[in-house]
Each structure stands twice: as structure tokens, then as C-alpha cells.
# Entry
Amino acid sequence: MFYHIGAIILSDTLSHKRSISLKVRKLGRTGLKVSNLCLGAMTFGAPNWGCDEKTAKQIVDRFIDAGGNFIDTANVYSLGQSEVITGRAIKDKRDKVVLATKVVSPMGMGANQAGGSRKNILDAVDASLQRLGTDYIDLYQVHAYDFTTPLDETIKALDDCVRWGKVRYVGCSNYAAWELMKAVSLSRELGAARFDSLQPQYSLTCRYIEREHLPLCREEGIGIIPYSPLGGGLLTGKVRRDQAAPEGSRVTINPATQSIDEKTFDVIDAVVAVSDELNCTPSQIALAWVMRQRGVTSPIFGARTIEQLEDNVGAAEVVLEEKHFEQLDKVSKLPEVYPYGNRERAKELLQAINFEYA
# Structure
């Protein structure tokens, strides 16, 4: 179900003005409503490829004017500076924002300044609240699985954060499917707050979550908020065969662009071809494709200029037809590997005997 929550006048690729209005979706099975695009704040305060505080404030204001209400950051982004800038940017509109941040990544050299231990989580949540200048965090996410800490310790600490009112919902990022399912099952056993969101990498150049994560999250009602939907900048159209990326662009310092295989170039070519046909930008095509994958709640995009924000938000109005999905899928789909190929064969056999198989 979608709801209109705002509108903004943005310039399109033809330089005339048009109105863009983001919509909202439920985050998984919860009642929390978030915009169908999420503004990632990793660029805020980042040296070399990020933006300063003044620009970050302009980006946040414009995003909210467009109907966006979902902003994601992390304590480790620029070692807390992203949280500081984000908090100041939303200070006068806190009630309009679903604010997400993360814990686990190292914030110093101390033995207890990283990980999913009770000590680090309780220390880190207070530090994030102070940097963000807020009394509560809407979505508090475990940035990565911590093999050094018992999972029940992490879950109980997060549950306390919820019970004390410091956190409203909890989620995770970069979990393997078995790690996520273990956490969900353990939360049920303990009667604790469970992970209601997963933040994985997902794009036309990185589709591995389709094998296990996507089916699991759809089954369990876990919202998926993918990061890097533009493939780390590869799908912006700035990287092409036999063509150097523009100097100063993020892709020039992104390790993923240092060695690109032919399949990735094929994906880039397909994205550019579809964007030319629909008279929009490659970034908008890549974002629109992720937005429309079943189970995805809200892709996270970053911006370091107002122009990049306008470009990315414009993906909300891109209409991809079935032929476009087929064109993009043909060059980017995952190879069939055991046991997934056999699963498709089993589906065919069951359908052949008139057995309904979902």
C-alpha cells in the first residue's frame, strides 16, 4: 500500500520542471511507514568524496520536501561526524523523520569500543543519541554479525534499548541468511524485540540476496532496505568500456571500479540503453529496478550535491515495463547453482502434475 506524503519540483534531464512525490511503504510486518527511497547520510562529512554540513542540510531539506521521511546513518560514518551533521539537519523537523543508525563497527582502539556486547551497545546508543541530538532512534541496526559475542547477549541488550524508550525498532545489516534466521528464532524464544529490517548490498551488479535473503525476509515479514543500489557508482553511467570516469567522482576511489569484468560492463550497457529509451538517467533506472523488487522496502541512496539528490529521487517516477525487466535480468541474473537449479526443476515437475506450487 502506498500513501503520498509530499511533493517537490525537480528538474529533469530535459531541464524543465516537474513534480516528484515519494510514497511510503510499511517496514516489513511493522506498522512503521517509511518513504520508498531512503536518504543515506554516509556522504555527510566524508572527506574527498562527501559533502559539507551546509550542503547536507540542503539535501535533507529537499529530500523531506519531496516526501522523503527515512534517513540512514551509522556511528562509524566519519567517526560520528555523519550523526552530528544529520542530527543538526533534522533538529527542527525530528517528528517528520524516521531516523536510522547503526552499532558494532569500531569507534576507537579500546577493546570494548566495537562489537555486539552489552557494554558496547549500551555505551554506543547513548553516544549516538548525544551526537544526533535526539531522545530516541527509530531504527537501531547491528552493522555486522559479531562472532565474538553470544547472540542472545546482543539481542537482550537491543531489547533493553527498546524497553527503555531509546530505540523504537531494531534491525541488522550484512547478515548471512542463516545468521538472520538464527536471530529471529532466538528473539522469539526470548520474547525480545526482533530484527524488523535487513540492510544488505543489492543492485543489478550484486544480486546474491535473491537466493536466500529475499525469500526469508518475505516469509518472516522483514523489511529490506538495500544499500549500494547503484553498485558503488558503477551504474551511474560514469563508468563505461574504454572510458575513464570523471575526475573527482566517487567511482574513481571505489575499489570496485578498479577491476570490472565483462558481465558488469554488459549490465552497465543495458542500464544505459534502457535509460536512453525512457529519457532518464542510468542512476534512475538502477534505483527503479531495486525499488520494484518484491520484498524491498526502501533502497538507500547517497548524495553529495543537490543535483545528485534530484536525480536519485526522480527514480520514484520511472516506469519500467516487462520488457525492460527482461532486458536487465538477461545480463545480470545469478547463475544457477546447486541446489537452486534443482528447486526450479522441482517446481516444473509439481506443476506438471497439477500441484499448486507457490
In short: Residues 1-17 have pLDDT under 50 and may be disordered. The radius of gyration is 20 Å. The longest helix spans residues 262-278.
